[in-house]
Amino acid sequence: MPQPPTPMSDYVLTFNLSDFAELDRFALLARQDYNLGNTTDWFGTFRGGLYGFYARIHGIEVNYHLVHSWIPRPRLPVETEYHVASVFFNMDSALECLTYALNALGHAVMPTSFRDVTTRRDLAKISPRDVLGIPEGDPPRAPLPGYTNLFPSTQTHWLANRDLIQTIFELHDVSKHRQTIYAGGMARLDPPLGFYEALGVAGKRNEEALFWPSAEIILRPDPKAPHAEQISRAREDYQTLEGLAQGFVQFIDQTSRLALADARSTIALSHNQFMSAGETAP
């Protein structure tokens, strides 16, 4: 169903990652021999996770923009689902990579309270559930103790947003293993000036429709439930990609501020500034 024009800026996600750059600088300072050192190469693990996180954030921005953008070619029938599934892969993976980075920094400070970055087995176990715990598990699993000690504000923020995180996990799982997660929506009707004319389809409604990008994407409710158990909902009760994506941006932006503040307040360094070449620690 078409929708009236909406400003293009509404379809650009902008993450503020500046505090993560500061966290990277803090970790680099921490890995110096006059501070925590780097005998386990924890810093390589930290930076690998952080840069993986940056790449996933880029993937979110790109796929979100493309599914809403005017492109001078007909859209494939599967294109919307492809971009939606890609957004959720990147959201899920961004959380995984960020946890990987925070775990590495935590392990450098409190090795017994985080996953061991020197063993394959522990590396494979790193997950956002280390931060959140698994209260519904059998048996339930508590978060790793290190997050309460070193990243308390970050952990509180994640726990407060457990529903958002769980929704991302479920939609990614379903799109990866089961079925489509795009349940409908609305198309845009605000093409750039001269768009249809340049393509030779102006005034031909059926052909114009082949180029419509999405304006609103409705996500499948309760995606893991059998179709027979999924109930009809009023339109205002459906969750949209657009609403969830904006919530994720806010969640990540706040995470960046809190993770940096936590690290600075809980991780004591012998030297809080980089030493110049040739300078020796007292």
**Strand order, biggest sheet?**
1-2-3
Radius of gyration: 22 Å
- Tally the structural domains: 1
Oligomer: single chain
In percent terms, what proportion of residues is strand? 5-15%
Largest sheet: 3 strands, mixed
Summarize the topology.
Layout: E1 2-3, H1 18-30, H2 42-68, H3 79-109, H4 120-125, H5 129-132, H6 145-150, H7 152-160, H8 162-177, E2 182-188, H9 195-199, H10 205-208, E3 214-219, H11 241-266
Parallel strand pairs: 1-2
Antiparallel strand pairs: 2-3
Structural notes for this entry:
- There is one protein chain.
- By secondary structure, this protein is mainly alpha-helical.
- It has one domain (11-266).
- Helices cover 52% and strands 5% of the residues.
- It has eleven helices and three strands; from the N terminus they run E-H-H-H-H-H-H-H-H-E-H-H-E-H.
- The protein has helices at residues 18-30, 42-68, 79-109, 120-125, 129-132, 145-150, 152-160, 162-177, 195-199, 205-208, 241-266; strands spanning 2-3, 182-188, 214-219.
- A three-stranded mixed sheet has the order 1-2-3.
- Helix 1 (18-30) packs parallel to helix 11 (241-266), helix 2 (42-68) packs antiparallel against helix 3 (79-109) and helix 7 packs antiparallel against helix 11.
- The protein is globular and about 75 Å long.
- It starts with a strand and ends in a 16-residue tail after the last helix.
- The model is unreliable at 1-8 (pLDDT under 50).
Q: What labels would you give this structure?
A:
single chain; 282 residues; mainly alpha; three-stranded mixed sheet; 11 helices; 3 strands; disordered N terminus
